[in-house]
Specification:
The chain is α+β, with helices and mostly antiparallel strands. The chain folds into 2 domains: 129 residues, PAS domain (Beta-Lactamase, 2-Layer Sandwich), CATH 3.30.450.20; 201 residues, Alpha-Beta Plaits (2-Layer Sandwich), CATH 3.30.70. It is 36% helix and 24% strand. β3 and β4 form a beta hairpin. α6 packs across α7 and α7 packs antiparallel against α8. The longest helix is centred in the last third of the chain and has 25 residues. The N and C termini lie far apart (94 Å).
Length: 356
C-alpha cells in the first residue's frame, strides 16, 4: 500500500487509522486535535496525563491551554492560545511557550507548543488544528538561572551594575510619567567600606568574602521592598531609591552607616573574632534630564572622592584601635549572612570609621 498523507479524507481507512493511532501513542509530547470551536476531539496518552484527572478525559473539553499562562504569567485567553491563533490566521504556529499546571496538581510546567492546521481533501486549510506540547521546564529553569547570574553579583546575590542601570532607567521613566512633585525624586545611597583591603590582607580573602556577604544581607534587610541594592565594586554598595524625599533619604543614610558600624562576628582559623567595620556613605539625587549612565557615573565619582577624603582623614588622625579583636566571652553566636543583630537607634553621623 502506498503511503498516504494523514488528512480527513484518508481517515476511515483501517490501515491509516492504525498508523495514526500508533504514531500518537508513541509520542512523548502531548498532542491535541481541536475543532473550530477549540473543543478537543482527539488526544494521545501524554495529553490525557497532562490535561485530565484520573477517570476523566480531555476529549470533549474546551481548549485546555486557556487555563495556562504565558511567560509573563499572564492568563492565556481569547485568541492567544496556539490553537486559536492558527484557526484565526490559518498559519502554523511554532515555539509559543505556555505554562500549564498539570490537572493532577504540582507546580507549573512549561511547554513549547507547535500548532498546525489540518489540511482538507482539497489541500486547503480545514477546521481542525493539531498541537504538540514539548516539555521545556528544565530548559526554562536553566534560562532563568543564567539570566539571574548575568544580572546579579555571584558572591552576595545583590544586583550587579548591569541590572542597576536598567532599574535606574525604569525609575527615571516612572518619575517622568508621574505628576511633578518637587519633594520626591530618584536617589542613590552609596556605601564604601573603609580599609577593606587591610581586612583581606590581615584575615584572608575567605573571611573578607564572608564579611561582604554579611554586610550585603544587612543592607538588603534595611531597605524598602521597592528599593534595589547593588554591589558595584569590590567593597562598594549602592541602594537605588525611587520616590523618596531628601529628609527620608538623609535618615536612611544615617541608618545604613549605623548598620555597617556594628562588629561582624566571623571565624578566623579556629577562633571567632569580632571585626569592626568602618564605612563612608553618601547620597545623590537624579537631576532633570540625566540618564541612567550619567547618573551612575556621577555616583561613581562621588564614591571615589569621598573614599579618598576618608583615607586622607585617617592618615592624619590619631591612631585608632585595630579592626580585629578577640571575641568577648562567652563565645558569640556565629554571624552568617542570614543572622545579624538589629542596629541601634541612628545618630547623626554619615561617616564612621573604627575608633571614631
Amino acid at each position: 500500500m502506498d503511503d498516504q498523507p494523514l488528512t480527513p479524507a484518508t481517515r476511515g481507512n483501517g490501515e491509516v487509522d492504525r498508523r495514526y493511532a500508533g504514531l500518537l501513542a508513541v509520542l512523548e509530547q502531548a498532542v491535541l486535535v481541536q475543532d473550530a470551536e477549540l473543543r478537543v476531539v482527539e488526544a494521545n496518552q501524554a495529553a490525557e496525563a497532562l490535561f485530565a484527572t484520573s477517570g476523566t478525559s480531555v476529549v470533549g473539553a474546551d481548549d485546555p491551554t486557556h487555563r495556562g499562562v504565558d511567560e509573563d504569567y499572564r492568563p492565556i485567553d481569547g485568541n492567544r492560545s496556539p490553537a486559536a491563533r492558527v484557526l484565526v490566521t490559518g498559519v502554523p504556529s511554532a515555539g509559543q511557550v505556555v505554562g500549564i499546571q498539570p490537572a493532577t496538581g504540582g507546580p507549573v510546567r512549561w511547554f513549547s507548543v507547535n500548532a498546525q492546521p489540518v489540511i482538507d481533501e482539497s489541500g486547503g486549510g480545514g477546521d481542525l488544528v493539531v498541537s504538540a506540547f514539548t516539555d521545556v521546564t528544565e530548559r526554562k529553569a536553566l534560562e532563568v538561572e543564567l539570566t539571574h547570574l548575568a544580572l546579579h553579583d555571584g558572591m552576595t546575590g545583590l544586583a550587579n551594575r548591569t541590572l542597576l542601570v536598567d532599574r535606574i532607567g525604569h525609575a527615571m521613566a516612572r518619575a517622568q510619567r508621574r505628576n511633578p512633585d518637587p519633594t520626591l525624586g530618584v536617589a542613590m545611597l552609596f556605601v564604601d567600606i573603609d580599609g577593606f583591603a587591610g581586612i583581606n590582607d590581615g584575615l584572608g580573602n575567605r573571611v573578607g568574602d564572608e564579611i561582604l556577604r554579611i554586610l550585603a544581607q544587612r543592607l538588603r534587610s534595611a531597605v524598602r521592598e521597592e528599593d534595589t541594592v547593588a554591589r558595584i565594586g569590590g567593597d562598594e554598595f549602592v541602594v537605588l531609591c525611587d520616590e523618596i524625599n531628601r529628609t527620608d533619604l538623609a535618615h536612611f543614610c544615617v541608618r545604613v552607616t549605623q548598620i555597617f558600624s556594628q562588629p561582624v562576628i566571623c571565624r578566623v582559623g579556629d577562633d571567632w573574632r569580632s571585626v569592626t567595620i568602618g564605612c563612608t556613605a553618601g547620597v545623590a539625587m537624579a537631576r532633570q534630564g540625566e540618564d541612567a549612565d550619567r547618573f551612575l557615573q556621577r555616583v561613581d565619582k562621588m564614591v571615589k572622592e569621598q573614599s579618598a577624603a576618608a583615607v586622607a582623614g585617617r592618615a592624619t588622625a590619631a591612631p585608632v584601635r585595630a579592626p580585629v579583636a578577640p571575641a568577648p566571652s562567652p563565645t558569640p553566636r556565629p554571624q552568617t549572612a542570614s543572622n545579624w543583630p538589629a542596629g541601634p537607634a541612628p545618630d547623626r553621623r554619615h561617616h564612621h570609621r573604627p575608633g571614631s
